[in-house]
Design goal:
The complex is a heterodimer of chains A (289) and B (371). With 289 residues, chain A is an all-alpha fold. Chain A contains 14 helices and no strands. In chain A, helix 4 packs across helix 14 (254-279), helix 9 (154-177) packs across helix 11 and helix 13 runs antiparallel to helix 14. The longest helix of chain A has 34 residues, at 65-98. In chain B, helix 2 (100-110) crosses helix 3 (115-128), helix 2 (100-110) runs parallel beside helix 4 and helix 3 (115-128) crosses helix 4. With 371 residues, chain B is α+β, with helices and mostly antiparallel strands. Chain B has helices at 50-58, 100-110, 115-128, 144-156, 174-191, 202-208, 226-231, 236-241, 364-368, and strands at 12-21, 24-34, 39-43, 65-70, 73-74, 86-88, 162-166, 194-199, 211-216, 219-224, 246-248, 251-254, 259-263, 266-270, 280-284, 290-292, 303-314, 318-325, 330-336, 347-352, 358-361. Chain B has two domains: 12-238, Rossmann fold (3-Layer(aba) Sandwich), CATH 3.40.50.300; 244-368, OB fold (Dihydrolipoamide Acetyltransferase, E2P) (Beta Barrel). Chain B has nine helices and 21 strands. In chain B, strand 12 and strand 13 (259-263) form a beta hairpin. Classes of the chains: A mainly alpha (289), B alpha+beta (371). Chain A binds chain B through residues 181, 183-184, 186-195, 197-198, 201-202, 205-206, 281-283, 285-288, and chain B through 58-60, 79-81, 84-87, 89, 91, 93, 95-97, 106-107, 110-111, 138, 140, 154-155, 158.
């Protein structure tokens, strides 16, 4: 081919090549279809077809107040976990941007090491810490305080889940914060803003995309938590996944279990759709160097 | 912003200000007085202490020792947000999540200016930098030069008595830079505010400043008008940093009234001598040097050095030659268009009047810190 007539050729060729980048995503798409798409469709179908076709499983779910209470509690616990994670992760992620590379490595490892320990082991160690005769209560008693009930309460569940989910908040926050030009805060100071004002008017708004990203991940992961609430919670802090497990594995009610899963999924999507306009920032490149 | 009192700029006094980072002395006993309403440029190579001085005045950096007064009051220990000083940064530092209008209104909001007044003053400041039509844009939608003009508006909108600028044009291309230099000069004239301007570009310093403070290694080498620095450099460093120059080094002999330098078998003399023991060098400005062919007769009493044309540059208004001297040193000569022209490699004689040679003590930092 001649280098002198590239226009017509490359136009043709470009049309032929346009699909190639998508071809690269094919393995991922196939995998997703197999492990997410197929089971999801199965769940929806079984929730409508077992034991017979119809919406009886959904009617059962919405007809029993206890189910609705558990659904509400699932969202409430997830919201608390998200809040605790934001409060704990924000200063931690900020510290990661402020220190030198060596200290930063230590901070990153502190986030990731628990991440690599099995969830069951971590939750069991929370049992040791939180139980009535556990470390926290022994310390309180030795300091002449009354012991507090942590295990088998909602508080215990929130503490355990927040610890497990903290990395999912810290990492997105850190990635946004490290892109914020800290000199903007200096500029705000020179214009007359005292440090707290400079933070709330400049740094915080620029870090919000990280808060939103982390919050969405943590909230959604928290909705589906099973092991931690099962081990740390009591009967009054049951979450939806425990209920699903009971229906499916103990009572072999696949239809009801599926219906609960679909309800959780749909409600989550609805919440995300409501939150989306708030989270969409006009200038996504805001504060990037 | 409306009624501007005469002479509304603040005076600044630095008295033996030092700043140490561990054993490194970023500022080493800097003393500088800036008049109200003056345009003072802090000029020097990177790491010379000029930006540290600016940060000290702005309140971003604490001094290790020394005194600092702005408008007659000591500001040592006063946090940046209480100093009421406008700062323009090289990186613009506009808030990306706010429109141009809100960026400029920011310092007014902090000061509790009511909305009607705020709007008027924002419009006035934006008009002053010719960005009045851009109030609703976001910084990311502006070019570098536009962003810097908005940053300038934001720094003057609250009427600070002092404006600091840290290489504000450093990231812009040459033409835009030259145009904005004139804009900054105009704004300085209109406001009457004291301006302190940091740059490493000596041409920019000459264009803008009433006076220039030349920094080197954490100290001020000389303070003066551009003309003083060019004609009467106090040190070799200043002479080399401001304008083109030729430095002649050689074996020095001084008698009571004159100094002679022996350079590769030839001798040049200047009718002056240096007090003290320092080793003297001669500094010559390009327009004080002339070239002639070896066969031509020179004026009586003129110094002559033989050399070879190493580079000939046509400048439009004249020509610039680099001449390699017998000892390997380079001389820079500017000659008018009407003069003779010389070709590369041509043997020439470099002539100058000894009275035009500036005798200065040799200073090794003058060579090493220049890039």
């Amino acid at each position: 081919m001649s280098a002198l007539e590239p226009t017509t050729l490359s136009a043709e060729r470009r049309a032929g090549w346009a699909w190639r980048p998508f071809a690269l995503t094919l393995p991922a798409l196939v995998l997703l279809a197999a492990v997410i798409g197929y089971p999801l469709i199965t769940i929806v179908l079984r929730s409508l077809s077992e034991p017979e076709w119809g919406v009886q499983n959904y009617a059962w779910f919405f007809g029993a107040p206890v189910n609705l209470a558990v659904l509400q509690r699932t969202f409430a616990i997830s919201a608390w976990v998200t809040l605790v994670c934001v409060v704990c992760a924000y200063p931690y992620a900020y510290l990661m941007t402020a220190v030198g590379p060596r200290v930063r490595l230590v901070l990153v490892l502190c986030v990731l090491i628990p991440f690599w320990v099995s969830g069951v082991v971590r939750t069991l160690s929370w049992v040791i810490l939180l139980q009535d005769s556990g470390v926290i209560n022994s310390l309180l008693r030795s300091a002449d305080f009354a012991g507090i009930r942590l295990i088998r309460t909602q508080t215990g569940v929130v503490i355990g889940m927040a610890q497990v989910l903290l990395p999912f908040m810290i990492l997105p926050l850190y990635s946004v914060m490290k892109g914020i030009d800290i000199r903007l805060v200096q500029a705000a100071r020179s214009l007359g803003a005292r440090p707290s004002r400079a933070f709330f008017t400049v740094y915080l708004p620029l870090s919000l995309p990280g808060v939103y990203a982390g919050a969405v991940i943590v909230f959604i992961l928290a909705l589906g938590f099973y092991i931690t609430p099962a081990l740390l919670g009591g009967p009054r802090s049951t979450m939806l996944s425990t209920l699903v497990q009971t229906q499916v594995l103990s009572l072999l009610q696949w239809g009801r279990g599926g219906a609960m899963g679909v309800v959780l999924l749909v409600t989550t999507f609805l919440l995300l759709a409501l939150a989306a306009p708030v989270m969409r920032s006009r200038h996504r490149e805001a504060g990037r160097r | 912003m409306n009624p501007r009192p005469e002479n509304r700029g603040a005076a600044i006094e630095l008295e033996t200000v030092s700043k140490a980072y561990g054993s490194f002395r970023a500022l080493d006993g800097v003393s500088l007085g800036i008049e109200p309403g003056e345009f003072m440029t802090l000029l020097g190579p990177s790491g010379s202490g000029k930006t540290t001085t600016l940060n000290v005045i702005a309140g971003f950096t604490d001094v290790t020792s020394g005194k600092l007064r702005v408008g007659g009051n000591s500001v040592v220990g006063v946090p940046a947000h209480k100093r009421n000083i406008g700062v323009v940064f090289q990186h613009y530092a506009l808030f990306p999540h706010m429109t141009v209008g809100r960026n400029v209104a920011y310092p007014l909001t902090l000061r509790g200016v009511d909305q009607a007044k705020r709007k008027a003053r924002v419009a006035e400041a934006l008009d002053m930098v010719k960005m009045g039509d851009f109030a609703h844009r976001y910084p990311s939608e502006l070019s570098g030069g536009q962003q810097q003009r908005v940053a300038l508006a934001r720094a003057i909108v609250f009427d600070p008595p002092l404006l600091l600028m840290d290489e504000p044009l450093g990231a812009l291309d040459k033409r835009l830079r030259e145009w904005l230099q004139l804009e900054i000069k105009r704004i300085h004239r209109e406001l009457g505010t004291t301006f302190v301007y940091v740059t490493h570009d000596q041409e920019e310093a000459l264009v803008l400043s009433d006076r220039i403070a030349v920094f080197n290694r954490g100290r001020i080498e000389q303070v003066g008008t551009g003309r003083q620095l060019y004609d009467e450099p106090a040190t070799l460093f200043v002479g080399r940093f401001i304008g083109d120059s030729t430095v002649l080094r050689g074996e020095a002999r001084s008698d009571g009234t004159s100094t002679a330098l022996g350079i590769a078998g030839e001798t040049v003399t200047a009718p002056r001598r240096l007090t003290g023991e320092a080793n003297p060098v001669m500094l010559l400005r390009p327009e004080k040097l002339s070239l002639r062919r070896p066969d031509q007769k020179a004026a009586a009493g003129a110094n002559r050095l033989s050399g070879t044309i190493a580079e000939a540059i046509y400048l439009g208004s004249g020509s610039k030659y680099e001449v390699k001297l017998g000892d390997g040193a380079m001389a820079i000569v500017r000659s008018p268009l009407t003069g003779e022209s010389f070709g590369l490699g041509e043997k020439v004689e470099l002539c100058f009047d000894g009275a035009d040679a500036k005798l200065l003590p040799d200073d090794s930092t003058a060579d090493t810190t220049l890039t």
